[in-house]
Each structure stands twice: as structure tokens, then as C-alpha cells.
Amino acid sequence: MRSHLDGSTTLERSAWGQGALYVAAAVLLAGVGWLLDPLANWLVSLKWAPMRGPAELLVSVPEPWLTIGLIAVGALAGMALIFFDSLEQVSVSVSGDRVLLKRAGFLQEIVREQVGHVFQEKGRLVLLGPKGEEIAREKCDLNGRRMAAVFTEYGYAWADGDPYEDEFRIWAPKTPELPDLANALLAARAQAMKSSDSGDSVKELRRELARIGIVVRDKGKQQYWRGPGRQ
To answer: Is the separation of the CB atoms in 138 and 207 below 8 Å?
Structure first.
């Protein structure tokens, strides 16, 4: 957390915190890599087992190079996981008149009058407008208590969760309470959610729904929706 001369405060992962995540992920996945050696040998010892072919290929590598290689690959995979996750995380600059959300290639400025409530939900920072419309939902796994303290200090209404939680309803095709465009977007989003490589499409369709005043929440593969909340 950094305070600036212009009166704003920036919340972001600290260097030591980011470093600790790299180390923890590297150690964890290096351990997983180390365990692959005995697992592969066990699979090869069975008369029949799934993935036996890859296991035989793995154990054909001589020691100690097999163990060293598995540990190294696991450690690198852990570090890569944290690196790509950090690219999606936003830093948050809060002042009395605006909120700035920033990450590589992305900047969203939200003026104070646009903000009704702020809360954190499943590792994402969510900002709602005065009528409950969703104006921002970005990946941000910073400490919730710290964020609550900063937003509250600047006069923003921090909530423990969505204040309009009770208004969410399960979506079904051609829901009569929704306009045709909203139903079409939700149908496209439901289809996109079935594919493992369509994360960007799912996010963009959420943004399109937010532009027409529809807020979406996912529970597994099922979508729930609500319109703007009551003022």
C-alpha cells in the first residue's frame, strides 16, 4: 500500500508478497514433479493402467536426470502460473474523487459519483453504480480488510457482498422478464462457458450485459441474473 502526494492511496501486491508467491508455487509444483517419479514407476508395474504409455516413456529416462528434470519442470510451471496470474491482477488507486484500476494494457477510471457500493467476491473487486449496475469486476486478490479500510477512509460504501444478492434469479432460455438482446447474450455466454478456451468471450459477454443493465453471477455452469437494483 502506497500513499501519494495527490492524496490517493494505491493498493497492489508488494514485491516481497509477489516473491513469496513465486517461491511457494515453485516449491509446491516441484514437489508434485518429484512425486511423478514413484507414481510413474507404480503405473508401469501394473498389468493395465491408464496413461501407462507416457509412464513407461517417463521412467525410461535415467536417474538422477529424471528426478532433477521433473523437479525443475514443476518449479518452472509454478513460477509461470504466478506470472500469468499477476498479469490479470489489477492495482487499485483510491482517492476522494475517483478510483483507478490498472494492469498491463488496461486502465479504468471511475469517478466518485459513479460508485454506489464496493465489495470483493471470489478474488475479484466489484464496483456497483448508484442503482446497482455493475461498472467494474476485475481480478484482485488483495487483502479484503485492507481494501475495505482504504475505501471506507475515502468515503466509499464498502459492502461484505452484493447488496442486491436476493434479487438474483436463475436464467433459462427466453426468460420473459428479459429483453431479447439480454436473452441472446446470456444464451451465447452459456454456450461459451461450455468451452475451456473461451474465457475472453465469457468476460466480454458479461461486459455487454452490464452495458444494458444486467448483472450476471455464475454458479458452476449455471447463470444467475438481476437487473439494476432499487435506488
So the answer is: no
The answer to whether residue 44 sits within a structural domain is: yes
- Number of H helices and number of E strands within the chain? 6, 11
By residue range, what is the domain housing residue 131? Answer: 91-153
Q: Answer whether residue 2 is part of any domain.
A: no
On whether both 19 and 70 belong to a single domain, the answer is: yes
Quick one: cell of 138? Answer: 476485475
Q: What is the pLDDT of residues 169-217, one digit of tens each?
A: 999 999 999 999 999 999 999 999 888 776 788 989 999 999 999 999 9
**pTM for this predicted structure:** 0.77
State whether 19 and 76 are in the same domain. yes
CB atoms within 10 A of CB 136: 22
What Rg, from alpha-carbon coordinates, does the chain have? 23
Residue listed under C-alpha cell 538422477 = 64
Q: What is the pLDDT of residues 43-102, one digit of tens each?
A: 878 777 777 777 777 778 888 888 888 889 889 998 998 888 888 899 999 999 999 999
Q: Classify residue 120 as left (phi > 0), alpha (psi -120 to 50) or beta.
A: beta
Cβ atoms of 218 and 191 closer than 8 Å: no
At 230 the pLDDT is 52
Q: How many domains does the chain have?
A: 3
Q: Are 95 and 7 in contact (CB under 8 A)?
A: yes
Percent of the chain predicted with pLDDT > 90: 52
Q: Is residue 10 part of a domain?
A: no
Separation CA 220–CA 45 (nearest Å): 38
- Is residue 114 within 8 A of residue 69, CB to CB? The reply is no
